[in-house]
Amino acid sequence: MTASLPTRLPPLLRHALRPLLDPYRRYRHAKLIHAARVALAILVSIGLSTGLRVPHGEWSTITVLIVVGGLQHHGNIRKKAAERALGTSIGALAGLGLILLYSAAHAPIAIYLLMALACGICAYHAIGKAGYIALLSAITMVIVAGHGDNEIVDGLWRAVNVLIGIAIALAFSFALPLYATYSWRYKLADALRACAAVHARLAGDRHVSDDAHLKEMAALSALLVQLRSLMPSVSKECETSMTQLEAIQRSLRLCIGYLEILSSAVPARDDVAAREYMRVEMKAVNRRIRDTLVGASRALKFGKPSRLAPRRRPADPPHDAPPPQLSGYVSITAKLAGEVDQLREKLLDTAQSWNI
């Protein structure tokens, strides 16, 4: 993806940094980059807490692991850090309040009941949209307060350490960020390329076993599920509405569905007239479907929205009427061609957002 590399850098430096600056290479080696980033963040956390002799500094390291350890995508880390900061603030205030109440009342049984009630309230809200915040509030409250008998200074230091851990995790999330948008782009490109391959096989009358076909469609379905899980983070990173991403997802789902229907509508191998019609009369529309799918895949993979430009001239309609037994196949092919073109237009409309 040469277009995405900084053009103002000297050629030699740009070539040396290419493995780090190229989004596709960062996507391919995401696990290695994520592991290195977490390891460096842990070293920084240990170095700061040890060098400054911060009491209970291990909580900074634990927080780094919680915030960034299992989340490689930039959008996810920002969201999780914001939720953790809010949950930590609520829990820390509640924990400090319990410590003060314990010191003033000296009624441990009442404090235990109050903590149990607070944890029950958090658990009630933990099953819902703000579940992570609620659960984290309860955990932080117990970390800060213990069973209510912790020292107020210890409680304050633990709260501060958690906030330091969040800051370190966020700082390292900006170092060689692994955007969910990269994964979404390249997985979508793979899905479109796979759709083109399945369609070319069906249109070209290349027979495969039922097991092979099922594996192809299962792989496409798996990509569809993976794309769905990435959409919330992509929406945050690219400032693209979920409605637009849902529209792209729906078009891809329909294309996969039409391919599945086409596979069951392919004429019998001994139906010479139908197969000749597919080979001759449907050649133009089949080529258009293939070129559009492959062009969209390349646009996503190489960051070239120009490949999404509409073709100057639509495919000519067949001159002859299809054999009766092929009418369903022809109808589904026309719907597939229309949906593929709509998918191309949706990608073109959002190109400025996902081409990062």
UniProtKB/TrEMBL annotation:
It holds the Pfam family FUSC. One of its GO terms (molecular function) is transmembrane transporter activity. It is a multi-pass membrane protein. The keyword Transmembrane applies. Keywords: Cell membrane, Membrane, Transmembrane, Transmembrane helix, Transport. GO terms for cellular component: plasma membrane. Residues 305-327 are annotated as: Disordered. InterPro entries: PHBA_efflux_AaeB/fusaric-R. The chain crosses the membrane at residues 85-103, 109-127, 132-148, 160-180. It is found in: Cell membrane. This is Fusaric acid resistance family protein. It comes from Burkholderia pyrrocinia (Pseudomonas pyrrocinia).
